[in-house]
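User: Here's a chain of 343 residues. Predict its fold as tokens.
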Amino acid sequence: GFVALGTVADVVPLIGENRILVHYGLRSFAMTEHVGVRTLLEESRVRADAVLAETIAFRIAPLINAAGRLGSPDRALDLLLSRDDEESRRLASWLGQANQERKAIENEMFEAGVEQIEATGGVVLGRPIVVAREGWHSGVAGIVASRLVERFRCPAFVIAVNDGLGRGSARSLEGIPLEPFYEAARAHAESIGGHALAGGLAVLPDRIDDLAGAIQAAAPPASRVDAASRYDLELTLGDIQPPLLQDLRQLEPHGQANPTPCFRFRELRIEGDVRRIGKNEDHLTFLARQGRRRIRVIYFRGAERARELTRIRNRFSVVAEIYLNDFRGNPRPELRLIDFGAD
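Assistant: Prediction complete.
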């Protein structure tokens, strides 16, 4: 279980023997007697027999990482080492509260970053985003950068300025490597580097504008990636049958270097209303129909595109992942929307 947890949480490529280790590691959670792990699963609201790689990535790992993002990782380590029920519950509860605090800080920084971008004219095609502010939390900069990439479909640099130094994170998407931006900005940064999709930097506050200018000037023409053009296969809703679902399960676990397959569905229309869901109403859900077939669609963090979706509701295409929602023990296929556009 620890091998699966560490491999997925550290975004290690899930290919070759890594994938085999994670496959069997996920199974081991159902049999674990480790007090700290059981308590961690309970705090994450995850059944021990239903742990997937994406469960670790989006529900369990954020709890563990919250400790380090907001201070010291010691309490997360203490929980994983704990063999005492009472101590484990106390530590897991603390991690849960820290993760909620992290989410609040993240949302505040994300909204402020979007305001900065819009106040300066929005995203220019072919240029990355660079946002910075005094008092931001550097431990959350990477998550905020990832959300900006998801929102604007271009690279993002998020810089938190504290105690006379800006510390930041960079994130990008497949097709737009970050290395050219590192090289362009190196003369203006105290340090900068990483790999194609993620990196970090340190910069003096009075050099941030120069650094941003160098990064944006290094952008190749029309470097915005259109998610709608990136999919594995075109399907119809009628193709979503048990044999296909079984075949898709054989491809798991998914993660870095072994992504969840994406499919394109054409000529859909929305049946009923597009509803906002989630604690902050930042997700969307609706029923999509294609001929006589219909399916529930979930669009995580898609609330800002609700009007656009409603405007083309009578005929549009989507790129989406297929997943089984087994809420209350009643599994049913649904689509997890990645992008959409008018037909």
